[in-house]
Design a protein that fits this description.
single chain, 4-stranded antiparallel β-sheet, about 15% helix
Length: about 230
C-alpha cells in the first residue's frame, strides 16, 4: 500500500527526488501519485499549478529511496502517462552536461535565465510568483516600456543553478498566464570583451545585446539595438 503523498514547499537536494516534465493535460496529484507508486513507495508529490489552479505541466516526486528515483530516471522513453512520454530527471544538480531548452545553452552552474514572449500584463510581482515554484530567486528584471507595460521579456537569477536548469528542462511546457514563454539560459559575458556570447536567437546577454522590447533608446544591458 502506497504512502499518501504530502504537499511540501521545499526543493532540497534530495537524492530520492525527481523532476517530471511534459505532463499531459489533466494530470493531477492523485493520478501522478498513482503512476509513480508502480515503481515504489512515494513520500511526496508536488504538481505545480498556475495562479488559476491549472497544472503547469511539471511536477516533483520524492520516493522513499534514491534507488527508486534512479530507476525512474533511467527508464527514459518508457515513462508514459496517459499515452504521453514524460521527461524524468533528478531534481538535484547533475554537474556538466545535460540538455536544456531548444536553441539554448544549458549550463548547470548558471543561475541566470532569459524569459521571452511574456504578455504585456506581466509584472515583476507576477513573474516572481510564477518562477518561485522552481526555487528561490535573487533577482527579477522585467523590462518595462514607456507606457508601463511589459516589453515582453525578463531576466531572472536563481539562488540555486539547479532551479534554473529545471526551468530550461521544462522548455516546452513553460506557460505564463495561459501563454507559452521562451526560457533560455543566459550566457555570461566574457571578461575583457564588450559583447556577450550569442544566446538563442541572435541575442547576447547582459551587454552588447539586442533589446527585443518595444520603445526607443538603448538597451539597459548594453549598447544594443532596440527592436521597436
Amino acid at each position: 500500500q502506497r504512502a499518501e503523498p504530502q504537499l511540501r514547499g521545499s526543493m532540497g537536494d534530495d537524492a530520492a527526488k525527481i523532476f517530471v516534465g511534459g505532463l499531459p493535460r489533466g494530470c493531477n496529484q492523485d493520478s501522478l501519485s498513482a503512476w509513480a507508486s508502480q515503481f515504489g513507495p512515494v513520500s511526496n508529490v508536488e504538481v505545480k499549478l498556475d495562479p488559476m489552479g491549472t497544472p503547469r505541466g511539471f511536477a516533483f516526486i520524492t520516493f522513499d529511496s534514491p534507488e527508486t528515483a534512479e530507476f525512474v530516471v533511467s527508464n527514459r522513453e518508457n515513462n508514459i502517462i496517459d499515452g504521453k512520454q514524460v521527461d524524468c530527471k533528478p531534481a538535484q544538480a547533475q554537474g556538466p552536461g545535460g540538455k536544456g531548452g531548444k536553441g539554448s545553452l544549458s549550463d548547470p552552474s548558471n543561475p541566470k535565465v532569459f524569459v521571452g514572449a511574456l504578455p504585456k500584463s506581466a509584472t515583476e510581482a507576477s513573474v516572481t510568483e510564477h518562477f518561485s515554484s522552481f526555487g528561490n530567486l535573487t533577482e527579477v528584471l522585467v523590462k518595462i516600456a514607456e507606457d508601463g507595460t511589459c516589453k515582453g521579456y525578463a531576466f531572472l537569477t536563481f539562488e540555486d543553478p539547479a532551479s534554473a536548469k529545471m526551468v530550461l528542462d521544462n522548455y516546452d511546457n513553460n506557460m505564463f498566464e495561459g501563454k507559452w514563454i521562451d526560457c533560455k539560459s543566459v550566457v555570461q559575458m566574457d571578461k575583457g570583451k564588450g559583447k556577450g556570447m550569442d544566446m538563442g536567437k541572435g541575442m547576447s546577454s547582459w551587454g552588447g545585446g539586442k533589446d527585443f522590447g518595444k520603445g526607443k533608446g538603448m538597451s539597459s544591458y548594453g549598447g544594443g539595438k532596440d527592436f521597436g
